[in-house]
Amino acid sequence: MRLRNITGSREIIRESIFVIHEPEKHKGNWQDIFGNTNPIHIEIGMGKGRFLMDMARMYPSVNYIGIEKYSSVLLRAIQKMEREEQPLCNVRFIRMDAEMIGNVFGMEEVDRIYLNFSDPWPKDRHAKRRLPSREFLARYDKVLKKEGLLEFKTDNKDLFLFALEELEPAGWKAEKISYDLHHDKDLMKDNVMTEYEEKFSSIGNPIYKYVIRR
Ligand code: SAM
Fold it and tell me: How far is CA 126 from CA 49, 73, 120, 133, in A?
């Protein structure tokens, strides 16, 4: 998702209380930001933030951090946060490329990682940019707790099959796999829809999901 540039978006982001600026400075100390010792869950490529905010409302004793690469998209998430009647104290945003995740979180600082409808980067030469690639799994390996889980959802079958093939070489294993999430009673029990999930499932696309650990 890349929205057209919106005049003033960088200024709004700079002034937003929901955005953590210079996130590298908080490496190893993210609990201080929230003022508690609750677990930290991150969504990489959060888009407009619907999933993250719905989760934060449902699980107030989890701290949620949304990572988004583009200012124009992050701006939408900030605007959504500003419309909340009850402020969500357990949500923060970071604008950055997920490649930098190891500079921003300490070893095993994160309890769970969500990848939702990640960009597919269909050309082979761009495989390393795919968020479930072995290169990214190696980055997640450093910041995720040893017993931590990573959850990935997509409607893109090729990306999902690629993601499954990456697991073994990267040293991860699948705990749950679904090729049709919306007809999987077990996984649907606590499913929270993302913006893309709503859009693609409404036109009949099956949704794929895995939950993985090392
Ligand atoms: N997760 C949302 C959902 O399911 O509705 C948005 C999905 S959208 C297809 C993918 C998002 O990931 C975009 O907003 C894009 O800018 C962001 N993104 C892609 N690559 C990224 C990266 N390397 N670091 C951070 N964000 C990234």
Answer: 25, 22, 9, 10
